[in-house]
Amino acid sequence: MSDPVSRLVATAQGDAVDNPFRVTGVMMQYYYVCERELWFESRNIEINRENASVARGTRVDESSYGERSQENLRLGMIALDLLEDGRVVEVKPSSTLTEPARMQLSYYLWYLDRVLGVEREGVLAHPTERRREGVSLDDDRCDKVESAIRGIHAIVTADSPPEATEKPYCESCAYHDFCWV
Ligand code: SF4
C-alpha cells in the first residue's frame, strides 16, 4: 500500500500497515502556513513555539471560549476543540490565516467521515471577533484534503526542508533564525 491517503486511513483504523502514516490537524494547518515549518515541526524542532504561534494568531486563545475550550475531544490522530449541536467547532483567536484553519477543520470532517464513518458539518469560530463560518466537506474540499495529505507525506519524508520563501509572518515564526540569519 503506497498511497499516503490509504495508509493514513488503514493506520487510523488499526489495520496492520508496514509503514504507518499519521497526520494531525496541526500538520494540516502548517502545510498551508509554511511547508518548511511543517518539515521542522515533523523533526520535533521547537524553539519558543508558544510565543511565535500566539503572535501569528495560529493558536487557540484558551480564555476566549471560557469553560468550553476545555472540552477537547481526542479521536485517534485528531483532537476537536468542541462539538456543538453535533457540529465540529474549531476555535481560532483571529481570522488571520483563515485558509489554514479552514483546512484543519476540513481535515477533521474528512477524518470523521473516512475513518469513523460519521458525517458532520463544521464551524470555524473567531470568538474575539464574534465571527463564525460554516465549513462543509463537499467534493472539492475532500479532494483538497486528500491532495494535502499526499503533499504532507512528500514533505515529512524528505531528507531536507523545502527552501525558505518569505512570508508576512516570518518575523514572528519560531524558526526565523533557521531561515533568514
Ligand atoms: S521563518 Fe518563514 S519560511 Fe521559515 S519556517 Fe517560518 S514561516 Fe516558514
Automatic annotation (TrEMBL):
Domain DUF83: 24-180
GO biological process, one term: defense response to virus
MF terms in GO: exonuclease activity; iron-sulfur cluster binding; metal ion binding
Co-factor: note: Mg(2+) or Mn(2+) required for ssDNA cleavage activity.
UniProt keyword list: Antiviral defense, Exonuclease, Hydrolase, Iron, Iron-sulfur, Manganese, Metal-binding, Nuclease
E.C. numbers: 3.1.12.1
UniProt cross-references to Gene3D superfamilies, sorted A to Z: 3.90.320.10
Domain of life of the native organism: Archaea
Cofactor(s) for this UniProt protein: Mg(2+); Mn(2+); iron-sulfur cluster
Function: CRISPR (clustered regularly interspaced short palindromic repeat) is an adaptive immune system that provides protection against mobile genetic elements (viruses, transposable elements and conjugative plasmids). CRISPR clusters contain sequences complementary to antecedent mobile elements and target invading nucleic acids. CRISPR clusters are transcribed and processed into CRISPR RNA (crRNA).
Record family assignment: Belongs to the CRISPR-associated exonuclease Cas4 family.
Protein name as annotated: CRISPR-associated exonuclease Cas4
Taxonomic source organism: Halobacterium hubeiense
